[in-house]
Write a structure and sequence with these properties.
The protein contains 5 helices and 26 strands. By secondary structure, it is mainly beta. It folds into 2 domains: about 5-200, no CATH class; about 245-355, Rieske Iron-sulfur Protein. About 40% of the residues are buried.
Length: about 375
């Protein structure tokens, strides 16, 4: 259903105020602890949760997404060199351009038998896939309008519970304490994505809402390392605040991997971290970085024959999302992506202050 021009204008004003104002007001409620059914009980300090401005569903999720193919030259030419969040499930590929996600933050989608929410927070640069089946109930996620550590807080429409995107769990409501099942995604440019997956579908601008998707609503935010719009609980100055870093979560521990500033070729990093054997592949020029489980402790080498990016010691080749090249579609042939996602460095530093930064040299 299309919203009114009046509401569109109000939403844009709210977003503009967020982008321009340094004044924020916390919502004061009781501290964490107590009955899970008590709506006043939170698993995070409630005075650190801020009202972002537009209100609940003021930034509308896309619940009936429409897709194009590479033959839609208007979409391809507009977004080719811009970032997308991509997913491959059972051989089916889809890409969600960030300029559309900037205005909607959540896409509720179904890809075959997979019900997924593509959640994207423009303020922390985090695009994370969430399984929409929670406690055996299929749900949709919406934008609550609240922020914690300047990060998106979705709510699920089945129980109205509030979640923290980068914490990956529910912090208030009947689902409080539940963790999300993370669905692997890939962040890269549309050009690189289509080079790897030419048959991919691409989220288009037929969203049901009237937005100027050619305008980034937050000014210089992506490039201004010192500009944080809402309070954060910890500042980590080891890296520039808006540097895009891949964080890999292993249990309660997190390690970060950076893009290379030394090479534009595909590179491989292998190391053990917190009991896990990890293989990371990255290419700065093509703008992708991914981490996979190395369950059999194989030795990998980089391939410069894109879309092939990895080759193991047995000669088996893989693409950037771990799909085995030449496979007949058996998912057991593929590499398993680690629980991981890209985010601005400042967001990793505030959510995971003990996070390590990998210093293992690539090859």
């Amino acid at each position: 259903m299309r919203i009114s021009t009046f509401f569109i204008g109000l939403t844009f004003i709210f977003i503009s105020l967020i982008a321009c104002s340094d004044q924020t007001e916390p919502i004061n409620n009781p501290a964490p602890g107590g009955d899970v059914f008590d709506p006043n009980v939170w698993d995070i300090p409630r005075d650190e949760v801020f009202d972002g401005g537009p209100g609940k569903d003021g930034i509308p999720s896309i619940d009936d997404p429409s897709f194009s193919t590479k033959d839609d030259l208007d979409i391809v030419n507009k977004y080719n060199d811009l970032l997308v969040t991509g997913i491959v499930h059972n051989g089916q590929a889809r890409a969600y351009p960030h300029p559309i996600l900037d205005w909607h933050e959540i896409v509720n989608d179904d890809i075959g038998d997979l019900s997924v929410a593509i959640t994207f927070c423009p303020l922390t640069g985090t695009g994370i896939g969430w399984d929409r089946v929670v406690n055996e109930v299929k749900t949709e996620f919406g934008v609550s309008g609240l922020l914690y550590d300047t990060n998106l807080m979705p709510y699920d429409r089945a129980t109205e519970s509030t979640w923290s995107q980068q914490r990956l769990n529910c912090v208030n409501g009947r689902n409080r304490g539940r963790e999300i099942n993370v669905i692997p995604l890939m962040e890269t440019t549309l050009r690189t994505w289509l080079e790897a997956y030419p048959d991919s579908e691409i989220l288009n601008e037929d969203t049901g809402f009237n937005r100027n998707y050619g305008v980034y609503p937050y000014g210089d935010y992506r490039t201004n390392n010192d500009r944080i719009l809402f309070p954060i609980s910890n500042t980590d100055s080891r890296l520039p605040g808006k540097e895009r870093v891949l964080g890999v979560l292993v249990g309660d521990n997190v390690i970060g991997y950076r893009f290379s500033d030394q090479s534009n070729e595909t590179e491989v990093i292998q190391e053990n971290f917190s009991g896990a054997s990890i293989v990371v592949v990255r290419n700065t020029e093509k703008n992708f970085i991914a981490a996979f489980e190395n369950e059999n402790n194989l030795t990998f080498e980089a391939s410069q024959n894109f879309p092939t990016v990895l080759k193991d010691e047995n000669g088996i080749e893989y693409d950037m999302t771990g799909q085995r090249i030449g496979s007949n579609g058996n998912p057991n042939d593929n590499l398993t992506q680690m629980k991981s996602f890209i985010g601005y460095w400042f967001s990793w530093g505030t959510f995971y202050p003990e996070m390590e930064i990998s210093e293992v040299e690539s090859r």
